[in-house]
């Protein structure tokens, strides 16, 4: 069976469904043979949020990690299905500790958990060389809060060959989560560029979860997809020669067709002839895509070119604070009262020159309820009121503001709340939130400045 290896996807982004992996694992077990399960839960935004959470004393890994693993961990350990996930985010060691505690809670055998490190550039021993590169990608007088480089699949492969049941990573290239498993199973050399390209293509098809099985593809009346409430996540059946089949668990919703696969194949690809990854430059121009049967699409023909000399890094920096709030007006003349409320806010906020100087941006808009089931966005210069039919019964005034200083944002949200009694009449349902912001930028880091490695977690941080 070593000539066929199955890789299933249990998550395609940080906010993905928590039960998606259950039917995937059942299908991998029913199919028999060697298999791996990958979880892709990171994006630039989610990594930035994880860094912020860790700095604030919360968990720096995927907050849904245990919810994702609890239903499937026992089955994976019992049937030898390895798990690879970038759910370690900003703190892979803490994630490994949490997984170990979960296994103990469930009275399972102690899994061998390996942690991949080296993506955190702020902990690098090459700070003298890295710091100027990071500064160049940021606004003047701005310091990085964090910087993580996209690692490749080598350490994942090596950890699996060392006997890992579970591999926890931080920032790695998304396709590497599948490529590392495939390279370990087939004993692929990273010098065989076409095979590494095939494994990268497999990972790219899996990395966004339900997108390739009809989720992001669906467009009612144009591209109809049945059963999205029970969408099945993808499984790739990979052969030793690099050819593969994309499918999904039987009995689940969604679909796998040549069209869904082609859309995902080209998703986020800048140049189909040169998709840059840490392991290989993937050339998709000769890939053949063909339907092999119901919910089965075969692909072959991936080609590889030598990997880039640099690695991409995501750099996070302080973005100040964002405030959002709203107040509703209903009944006769609701839109006119909402417009008056917006005018009042503009007038009062415009008097404070210090406030105006400190605000990065402000925005006010309105959403009007047209009937019981639809709404209309009213922009800054909508058509005259008497041309809108039917008349607006309910209007929600929404305001958003950004500033480096939290107190400035709090002042704006306070002025919004004061509209309750300071006019116009009939306002209600005020809600406001203030959130800290982390912005991201990108940098290219010479490979010789990045020291990726892995270790087996033994129960200590």
Contiguous helical run count? 13
Average pLDDT works out at: 90
List low-pLDDT spans: 369-389
Shape label = globular
- Proportion of β residues? 25-35%
Structural class: alpha+beta
Strand arrangement across the biggest beta sheet = 11-12-8-7-1-2-3-6-4-19
- How many individual domains? 2
Radius of gyration: 25 Å
Descriptive report:
With 461 residues, the chain is α+β, with helices and mostly antiparallel strands. The protein has helices at 21-31, 44-55, 65-69, 73-79, 92-105, 127-136, 154-161, 176-186, 193-206, 258-265, 334-350, 353-358, 406-422, and strands at residues 4-11, 35-39, 82-85, 113-117, 144-149, 166-168, 235-239, 244-247, 275-276, 281-283, 288-293, 296-300, 303-305, 310-330, 361-369, 375-378, 394-403, 428-446, 453-457. It has 2 domains: 4-126 and 148-314 and 448-457, no CATH class; 315-442, 2-Layer Sandwich (Alpha-Beta Plaits). It contains 13 helices and 19 strands. Helix 7 packs across helix 8 (176-186). The protein is globular and about 75 Å long.
In short:
The chain has 461 residues and is α+β, with helices and mostly antiparallel strands. The protein has helices at residues 21-31, 44-55, 65-69, 73-79, 92-105, 127-136, 154-161, 176-186, 193-206, 258-265, 334-350, 353-358, 406-422, and strands at residues 4-11, 35-39, 82-85, 113-117, 144-149, 166-168, 235-239, 244-247, 275-276, 281-283, 288-293, 296-300, 303-305, 310-330, 361-369, 375-378, 394-403, 428-446, 453-457.
């Amino acid at each position: 069976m070593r000539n066929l290896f199955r890789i299933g996807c249990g998550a395609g982004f940080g906010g993905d469904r928590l039960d998606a992996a259950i039917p995937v694992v059942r299908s991998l077990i029913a199919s028999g043979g060697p298999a791996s399960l990958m979880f892709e839960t990171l994006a630039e935004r989610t990594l930035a949020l994880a860094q912020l959470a860790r700095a604030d004393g919360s968990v720096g890994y995927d907050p849904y990690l245990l919810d994702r693993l609890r239903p499937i961990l026992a089955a994976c350990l019992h049937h030898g299905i390895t798990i690879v996930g970038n759910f370690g985010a900003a703190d892979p060691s803490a994630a490994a500790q949490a997984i170990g505690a979960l296994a103990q809670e469930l009275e399972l055998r102690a899994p061998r958990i390996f942690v991949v490190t080296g993506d955190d550039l702020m902990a690098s021993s090459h700070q003298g060389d890295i710091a100027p590169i990071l500064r160049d990608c940021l606004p003047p007088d701005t310091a990085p809060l964090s910087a993580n480089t996209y690692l490749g699949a080598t350490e994942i492969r090596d950890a699996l060959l060392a006997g890992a049941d579970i591999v926890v990573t931080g920032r790695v290239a998304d396709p590497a989560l599948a490529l590392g498993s495939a390279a370990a199973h087939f004993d692929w050399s990273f010098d065989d560029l076409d095979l590494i390209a095939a494994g990268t293509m497999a990972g790219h098809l899996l990395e966004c979860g339900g997108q390739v099985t009809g989720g992001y593809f669906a467009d009612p009346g144009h591209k109809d997809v049945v059963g999205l409430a029970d969408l099945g996540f993808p499984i790739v059946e990979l052969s030793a020669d690099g050819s593969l089949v994309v499918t999904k668990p039987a009995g689940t919703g969604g679909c796998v067709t040549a069209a869904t696969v082609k859309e995902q194949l080209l998703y986020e690809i800048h140049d189909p002839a040169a998709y840059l990854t840490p392991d290989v430059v993937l050339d998709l121009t000769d890939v053949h895509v063909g339907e092999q049967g119901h919910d089965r699409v075969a692909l072959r023909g991936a080609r590889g070119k030598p990997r880039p000399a640099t690695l991409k890094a995501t750099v996070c920096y302080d973005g100040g604070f964002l405030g959002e709030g709203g107040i509703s007006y209903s009944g006769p003349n609701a839109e006119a009262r909402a417009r008056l409320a917006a005018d009042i806010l503009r007038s009062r906020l415009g008097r404070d020159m210090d406030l105006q100087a400190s605000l990065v941006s402000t925005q006010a808009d309105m959403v009007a309820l047209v009937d019981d089931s639809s709404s209309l966005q009213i922009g800054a210069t909508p058509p005259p009121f008497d041309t809108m039919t039917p008349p607006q019964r309910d209007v929600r005034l929404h305001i958003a503001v950004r500033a480096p200083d939290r107190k400035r944002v709090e002042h704006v949200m306070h002025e919004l709340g004061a509209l309750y009694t300071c006019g116009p009449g009939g306002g209600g349902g005020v809600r406001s939130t203030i959130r800290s912001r982390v912005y991201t930028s990108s940098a290219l880091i010479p490979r010789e400045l990045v020291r990726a490695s892995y270790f087996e977690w033994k129960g200590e941080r």
